[in-house]
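Thread: quick sanity check before group meeting

JM: Hey all, I'm pulling together slides for Thursday and realized we never actually wrote out the predicted structure for the chain we discussed last week. Dropping the sequence here so it's in one place. If anyone has concerns about the input, flag it before I start.
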Amino acid sequence: MTQSELVARIRAGRQVLLAVLARVPPAERETPGAMGEWSVKDTIVHLNYWGGQLVTLLYQVRSGQTPATLSVAPDLDVEAVNRRWHAQGKNRPWEAAWSDFNGIHAQVIRRVKEFSDAELNSTTIEPKLRGRPLWSWVAADTYDHDEEHARAILAWLEAKGL
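JM (edit): ok, ran it. Output follows.
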């Protein structure tokens, strides 16, 4: 995948999510159930944590550091991490979560643009990536993740008649 294709996919995935989020009435942002027991705000905070991990991963790879993010841990228990982060972020105000959501997205785009097409597609750029090209790590924590949660929130909205 080229850098420009990846950036376009990241932006398109975010637009899908933003279109769904625009349908959420402000009074419903913190109502549980949008994603399991999570509210829409909890889901945004969740995306922020994973997006922050991606920004750190991209920074570490670009600067030649060995990645130390949770996402590259071979024995990662995603559900346990999600539960811990949910507990940590549960009381984050909507405005702060929303600001983080937009800021992290901008940082991801900026960091992705620091890599060449060859680097994004390399399976040997960093051993801790276990033979996966860098673009696939980006996809997992951007457009794939955004679209996954957009589908869940949309189903919740439709079930509520919103």
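AS: nice. The helical segments are 3-21, 40-62, 78-89, 94-112, 117-121, 134-140, 143-159. The domain at 3-159 is CATH 1.20.120.450 (Four Helix Bundle (Hemerythrin (Met), subunit A)).
JM: adding both to the slides.
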